[in-house]
Amino acid sequence: MPDFDATNAIDDTLWAALCDLRAQDGGTILTYAHHRKRRRELTVDGRLVVLAADHPARMVVDGAPGDGQMGNRRDYLGRILRVLQGSAVDGLMGTPDIIEELMALDYLLMQDGAESVLDHRLLIGCMNRGGLAGAAFEMDDRFTAYDAAGLEEMKLDGGKMMVRLDLKDPRSLDTLHACAQAVDGCVELGLPAFVEAFIVHRTESGYKLDRSPRALMQAVSVAAALGDSSLRTWLKLPYCDGYEMVAGATSLPILMLGGAARDDQHAVLEEFARGMQAGPNVRGCLVGRNVLYPGAMDPAMMARAVVWIVHEGVDATSAMERAHGHH
Predict the structure, then answer these.
(1) 6 vs 70: which has the higher pLDDT
(2) Domains in the chain, number
(3) CB of 90 within 8 A of CB of 48?
(4) Distance of CA 11 to the CA centre of its chain
(5) Could you report the per-residue pLDDT of 226-249, keeping only the tens digit for each?
(6) What's this model's pTM, rounded to 2 decimal places?
(7) Strand 193-203 to 206-209 pairing
Protein backbone atom coordinates (compact mmCIF):
# COMPACT_ATOMS: atom_id res chain seq x y z
CA MET A 1 0.00 0.00 0.00
CA PRO A 2 1.55 3.36 -0.97
CA ASP A 3 2.11 5.89 1.80
CA PHE A 4 -0.82 8.23 2.36
CA ASP A 5 -0.17 11.57 0.64
CA ALA A 6 -1.88 14.51 2.36
CA THR A 7 -1.31 16.84 -0.61
CA ASN A 8 -4.16 14.96 -2.30
CA ALA A 9 -6.50 16.23 0.43
CA ILE A 10 -5.31 19.85 0.06
CA ASP A 11 -4.05 20.58 -3.45
CA ASP A 12 -1.96 23.63 -4.40
CA THR A 13 -5.02 25.67 -5.38
CA LEU A 14 -6.86 24.99 -2.11
CA TRP A 15 -3.72 25.70 -0.04
CA ALA A 16 -3.20 29.03 -1.86
CA ALA A 17 -6.87 29.94 -1.34
CA LEU A 18 -6.54 29.16 2.39
CA CYS A 19 -3.45 31.37 2.67
CA ASP A 20 -5.30 34.17 0.84
CA LEU A 21 -8.24 33.88 3.23
CA ARG A 22 -5.86 34.01 6.21
CA ALA A 23 -4.43 37.30 4.94
CA GLN A 24 -7.88 38.93 5.11
CA ASP A 25 -9.45 40.40 8.25
CA GLY A 26 -11.03 37.13 9.42
CA GLY A 27 -14.63 38.25 8.94
CA THR A 28 -15.39 35.39 6.55
CA ILE A 29 -14.27 32.75 9.07
CA LEU A 30 -16.14 34.45 11.92
CA THR A 31 -19.33 34.59 9.83
CA TYR A 32 -18.85 30.92 8.95
CA ALA A 33 -18.47 30.06 12.68
CA HIS A 34 -21.73 31.82 13.52
CA HIS A 35 -23.66 30.03 10.77
CA ARG A 36 -22.23 26.54 11.22
CA LYS A 37 -24.93 23.95 11.95
CA ARG A 38 -24.26 22.68 15.46
CA ARG A 39 -25.29 19.47 17.16
CA ARG A 40 -28.28 19.72 19.42
CA GLU A 41 -26.92 17.11 21.82
CA LEU A 42 -23.34 16.38 22.78
CA THR A 43 -23.65 12.72 21.86
CA VAL A 44 -26.02 10.73 19.71
CA ASP A 45 -25.60 7.45 21.63
CA GLY A 46 -23.72 8.49 24.79
CA ARG A 47 -20.35 7.76 23.13
CA LEU A 48 -17.77 9.94 21.39
CA VAL A 49 -14.80 9.69 19.07
CA VAL A 50 -13.10 13.08 18.84
CA LEU A 51 -9.97 13.80 16.82
CA ALA A 52 -7.31 15.71 18.80
CA ALA A 53 -5.31 18.39 16.95
CA ASP A 54 -3.69 20.56 19.61
CA HIS A 55 -0.14 19.15 19.84
CA PRO A 56 1.91 21.65 17.79
CA ALA A 57 0.88 24.55 20.06
CA ARG A 58 2.98 23.11 22.86
CA MET A 59 5.98 22.44 20.60
CA VAL A 60 5.10 18.81 19.91
CA VAL A 61 5.79 18.69 16.17
CA ASP A 62 6.83 15.05 15.68
CA GLY A 63 4.54 12.30 14.41
CA ALA A 64 7.38 9.82 14.97
CA PRO A 65 10.45 10.87 17.03
CA GLY A 66 12.44 13.59 15.28
CA ASP A 67 10.46 13.67 12.02
CA GLY A 68 8.94 17.15 12.48
CA GLN A 69 5.94 15.97 10.48
CA MET A 70 3.29 17.67 12.60
CA GLY A 71 5.13 20.94 11.96
CA ASN A 72 4.14 20.72 8.28
CA ARG A 73 0.79 22.50 8.50
CA ARG A 74 -0.46 21.60 5.03
CA ASP A 75 0.24 17.90 5.66
CA TYR A 76 -1.30 18.11 9.15
CA LEU A 77 -4.48 19.81 7.95
CA GLY A 78 -4.67 17.42 4.99
CA ARG A 79 -4.69 14.46 7.35
CA ILE A 80 -7.35 16.05 9.57
CA LEU A 81 -9.49 16.87 6.53
CA ARG A 82 -9.12 13.31 5.25
CA VAL A 83 -10.41 11.94 8.58
CA LEU A 84 -13.36 14.35 8.61
CA GLN A 85 -14.26 13.51 5.00
CA GLY A 86 -13.70 9.77 5.23
CA SER A 87 -15.02 8.69 8.63
CA ALA A 88 -17.86 9.25 11.08
CA VAL A 89 -15.77 10.78 13.89
CA ASP A 90 -17.96 12.90 16.16
CA GLY A 91 -15.77 15.96 15.98
CA LEU A 92 -12.47 17.68 16.47
CA MET A 93 -10.59 19.23 19.37
CA GLY A 94 -7.97 21.86 18.51
CA THR A 95 -6.31 25.19 19.17
CA PRO A 96 -7.77 28.40 17.69
CA ASP A 97 -5.46 28.46 14.66
CA ILE A 98 -6.31 24.91 13.62
CA ILE A 99 -10.05 25.26 14.20
CA GLU A 100 -10.07 28.49 12.17
CA GLU A 101 -8.04 26.89 9.37
CA LEU A 102 -10.52 24.02 9.19
CA MET A 103 -13.44 26.46 9.17
CA ALA A 104 -11.72 28.30 6.30
CA LEU A 105 -11.12 25.06 4.39
CA ASP A 106 -14.71 23.97 4.95
CA TYR A 107 -15.94 27.36 3.71
CA LEU A 108 -13.75 27.15 0.58
CA LEU A 109 -14.79 23.56 -0.18
CA MET A 110 -18.47 24.44 0.27
CA GLN A 111 -18.01 27.38 -2.15
CA ASP A 112 -16.89 24.70 -4.58
CA GLY A 113 -20.07 22.69 -4.01
CA ALA A 114 -18.80 20.17 -1.44
CA GLU A 115 -20.76 19.08 1.64
CA SER A 116 -19.67 20.65 4.94
CA VAL A 117 -17.30 18.50 7.03
CA LEU A 118 -17.92 20.50 10.22
CA ASP A 119 -21.73 20.76 10.31
CA HIS A 120 -23.28 18.70 13.16
CA ARG A 121 -19.83 17.80 14.43
CA LEU A 122 -18.43 18.78 17.80
CA LEU A 123 -15.75 21.46 17.79
CA ILE A 124 -13.95 21.54 21.12
CA GLY A 125 -11.45 24.30 21.85
CA CYS A 126 -8.12 23.55 23.52
CA MET A 127 -7.52 25.98 26.37
CA ASN A 128 -4.13 25.58 28.10
CA ARG A 129 -0.99 25.09 26.00
CA GLY A 130 1.54 27.16 27.98
CA GLY A 131 3.40 24.16 29.41
CA LEU A 132 5.65 23.81 26.39
CA ALA A 133 7.19 20.37 25.88
CA GLY A 134 10.71 20.25 27.29
CA ALA A 135 10.59 23.76 28.80
CA ALA A 136 11.87 24.50 32.30
CA PHE A 137 8.36 25.80 33.06
CA GLU A 138 6.51 22.80 31.56
CA MET A 139 4.40 22.18 34.69
CA ASP A 140 3.16 25.78 34.69
CA ASP A 141 0.62 24.99 31.99
CA ARG A 142 -1.00 28.38 31.52
CA PHE A 143 -4.11 29.11 29.51
CA THR A 144 -2.63 30.50 26.31
CA ALA A 145 -5.25 29.33 23.79
CA TYR A 146 -9.06 29.59 24.23
CA ASP A 147 -10.79 31.00 27.28
CA ALA A 148 -14.49 30.35 27.87
CA ALA A 149 -15.52 33.62 26.18
CA GLY A 150 -13.45 32.65 23.12
CA LEU A 151 -15.23 29.29 22.90
CA GLU A 152 -18.56 31.09 22.98
CA GLU A 153 -17.46 33.68 20.38
CA MET A 154 -16.60 30.96 17.85
CA LYS A 155 -19.74 28.95 18.74
CA LEU A 156 -17.72 25.94 19.82
CA ASP A 157 -19.19 22.94 21.65
CA GLY A 158 -16.86 22.61 24.64
CA GLY A 159 -13.44 23.30 26.10
CA LYS A 160 -10.53 20.95 26.78
CA MET A 161 -7.82 21.44 29.36
CA MET A 162 -4.98 19.38 30.78
CA VAL A 163 -3.65 19.06 34.30
CA ARG A 164 -0.42 17.13 34.75
CA LEU A 165 0.48 16.67 38.38
CA ASP A 166 4.15 16.53 39.32
CA LEU A 167 3.85 16.18 43.07
CA LYS A 168 7.37 17.60 43.49
CA ASP A 169 6.72 20.75 41.45
CA PRO A 170 4.64 23.52 43.08
CA ARG A 171 3.73 24.89 39.62
CA SER A 172 1.32 21.99 39.23
CA LEU A 173 -0.89 23.75 41.77
CA ASP A 174 -1.12 26.85 39.54
CA THR A 175 -2.24 24.67 36.64
CA LEU A 176 -4.75 22.87 38.86
CA HIS A 177 -6.19 26.19 40.03
CA ALA A 178 -6.40 27.56 36.48
CA CYS A 179 -8.19 24.40 35.33
CA ALA A 180 -10.75 24.76 38.13
CA GLN A 181 -11.45 28.32 36.97
CA ALA A 182 -11.74 27.15 33.35
CA VAL A 183 -14.27 24.47 34.37
CA ASP A 184 -16.26 27.28 36.05
CA GLY A 185 -16.08 29.37 32.87
CA CYS A 186 -17.42 26.48 30.81
CA VAL A 187 -20.15 25.69 33.35
CA GLU A 188 -21.32 29.31 33.27
CA LEU A 189 -21.81 29.12 29.49
CA GLY A 190 -23.40 25.67 29.58
CA LEU A 191 -20.42 24.10 27.79
CA PRO A 192 -18.90 20.72 28.63
CA ALA A 193 -15.34 20.70 29.99
CA PHE A 194 -13.04 17.89 28.86
CA VAL A 195 -10.36 17.53 31.53
CA GLU A 196 -7.21 15.52 30.77
CA ALA A 197 -5.46 14.48 33.97
CA PHE A 198 -2.54 12.31 35.03
CA ILE A 199 0.45 12.18 37.35
CA VAL A 200 3.93 12.62 35.87
CA HIS A 201 7.48 12.10 37.14
CA ARG A 202 10.43 14.15 35.95
CA THR A 203 13.22 12.04 34.41
CA GLU A 204 16.46 12.80 32.55
CA SER A 205 14.59 12.50 29.25
CA GLY A 206 11.58 14.62 30.21
CA TYR A 207 8.30 13.91 31.98
CA LYS A 208 7.08 10.33 32.13
CA LEU A 209 3.43 9.58 32.60
CA ASP A 210 2.62 7.30 35.55
CA ARG A 211 0.39 4.64 33.98
CA SER A 212 -0.21 2.66 37.14
CA PRO A 213 -3.92 2.23 37.92
CA ARG A 214 -3.37 3.74 41.37
CA ALA A 215 -1.78 6.95 40.00
CA LEU A 216 -4.53 7.33 37.39
CA MET A 217 -7.18 6.68 40.04
CA GLN A 218 -5.64 9.51 42.11
CA ALA A 219 -5.55 11.87 39.12
CA VAL A 220 -9.17 11.05 38.28
CA SER A 221 -10.26 11.80 41.83
CA VAL A 222 -8.62 15.24 41.66
CA ALA A 223 -9.87 16.13 38.16
CA ALA A 224 -13.47 15.08 38.85
CA ALA A 225 -13.67 17.54 41.77
CA LEU A 226 -12.42 20.62 39.88
CA GLY A 227 -14.62 23.72 39.73
CA ASP A 228 -18.05 24.70 41.01
CA SER A 229 -19.77 21.83 39.27
CA SER A 230 -18.97 18.50 37.65
CA LEU A 231 -22.33 18.37 35.83
CA ARG A 232 -20.71 18.85 32.42
CA THR A 233 -17.25 17.38 33.04
CA TRP A 234 -15.81 14.63 30.86
CA LEU A 235 -12.41 13.12 31.66
CA LYS A 236 -9.67 12.34 29.16
CA LEU A 237 -7.36 9.61 30.45
CA PRO A 238 -4.66 7.29 29.15
CA TYR A 239 -5.38 3.57 28.97
CA CYS A 240 -3.51 1.20 31.28
CA ASP A 241 -3.73 -2.44 32.32
CA GLY A 242 -6.24 -2.67 35.17
CA TYR A 243 -8.37 0.09 33.64
CA GLU A 244 -11.38 -1.18 35.62
CA MET A 245 -9.83 0.42 38.70
CA VAL A 246 -9.42 3.74 36.89
CA ALA A 247 -12.97 3.71 35.51
CA GLY A 248 -14.22 2.71 38.96
CA ALA A 249 -12.78 5.87 40.53
CA THR A 250 -15.54 8.09 39.12
CA SER A 251 -19.04 8.09 37.64
CA LEU A 252 -18.02 10.78 35.14
CA PRO A 253 -17.72 9.82 31.45
CA ILE A 254 -14.19 8.92 30.35
CA LEU A 255 -12.59 9.30 26.93
CA MET A 256 -9.32 7.44 26.31
CA LEU A 257 -6.36 9.29 24.85
CA GLY A 258 -4.01 7.73 22.33
CA GLY A 259 -0.65 9.24 23.24
CA ALA A 260 2.40 9.26 20.95
CA ALA A 261 1.99 7.56 17.56
CA ARG A 262 2.97 3.89 17.60
CA ASP A 263 4.03 1.53 14.84
CA ASP A 264 1.52 -1.14 15.82
CA GLN A 265 -1.93 0.18 14.89
CA HIS A 266 -3.58 -3.07 15.93
CA ALA A 267 -2.19 -2.72 19.49
CA VAL A 268 -3.69 0.78 19.72
CA LEU A 269 -7.11 -0.56 18.65
CA GLU A 270 -6.78 -3.48 21.09
CA GLU A 271 -6.28 -1.04 23.98
CA PHE A 272 -9.31 1.01 22.96
CA ALA A 273 -11.45 -2.13 22.67
CA ARG A 274 -10.33 -3.36 26.10
CA GLY A 275 -10.85 0.07 27.61
CA MET A 276 -14.43 0.21 26.30
CA GLN A 277 -15.13 -2.96 28.32
CA ALA A 278 -13.61 -1.59 31.55
CA GLY A 279 -16.69 0.15 32.91
CA PRO A 280 -20.04 1.66 31.88
CA ASN A 281 -18.58 5.18 32.08
CA VAL A 282 -15.81 4.59 29.49
CA ARG A 283 -17.45 6.38 26.59
CA GLY A 284 -14.94 6.61 23.77
CA CYS A 285 -11.69 8.22 22.62
CA LEU A 286 -10.15 11.63 22.18
CA VAL A 287 -7.26 10.62 19.94
CA GLY A 288 -4.81 12.48 17.70
CA ARG A 289 -1.45 11.16 16.56
CA ASN A 290 -2.40 7.48 16.43
CA VAL A 291 -5.18 8.27 13.96
CA LEU A 292 -3.44 11.03 12.00
CA TYR A 293 -0.10 9.20 11.63
CA PRO A 294 -0.88 5.47 11.33
CA GLY A 295 2.28 4.60 9.37
CA ALA A 296 1.56 4.11 5.67
CA MET A 297 -2.14 3.59 6.36
CA ASP A 298 -4.82 6.11 5.33
CA PRO A 299 -5.77 8.11 8.48
CA ALA A 300 -9.48 7.83 7.53
CA MET A 301 -9.15 4.05 7.67
CA MET A 302 -7.72 4.15 11.19
CA ALA A 303 -10.44 6.63 12.22
CA ARG A 304 -13.17 4.32 10.90
CA ALA A 305 -11.75 1.41 12.91
CA VAL A 306 -11.82 3.49 16.13
CA VAL A 307 -15.40 4.65 15.40
CA TRP A 308 -16.59 1.04 14.96
CA ILE A 309 -14.94 -0.03 18.23
CA VAL A 310 -16.51 2.84 20.18
CA HIS A 311 -19.94 3.17 18.58
CA GLU A 312 -20.62 -0.44 17.55
CA GLY A 313 -18.60 -2.45 20.08
CA VAL A 314 -16.63 -4.20 17.32
CA ASP A 315 -13.41 -5.97 18.41
CA ALA A 316 -10.01 -4.66 17.24
CA THR A 317 -9.32 -7.39 14.66
CA SER A 318 -12.75 -7.08 13.02
CA ALA A 319 -12.48 -3.28 13.05
CA MET A 320 -9.10 -3.39 11.31
CA GLU A 321 -10.31 -5.94 8.74
CA ARG A 322 -13.44 -3.92 8.05
CA ALA A 323 -11.39 -0.72 7.69
CA HIS A 324 -9.10 -2.34 5.13
CA GLY A 325 -12.05 -3.73 3.18
CA HIS A 326 -14.05 -0.48 3.27
CA HIS A 327 -13.65 2.12 0.52
Answers:
(1) 70
(2) 1
(3) yes
(4) 25
(5) 999 999 999 999 999 999 999 999
(6) 0.96
(7) antiparallel
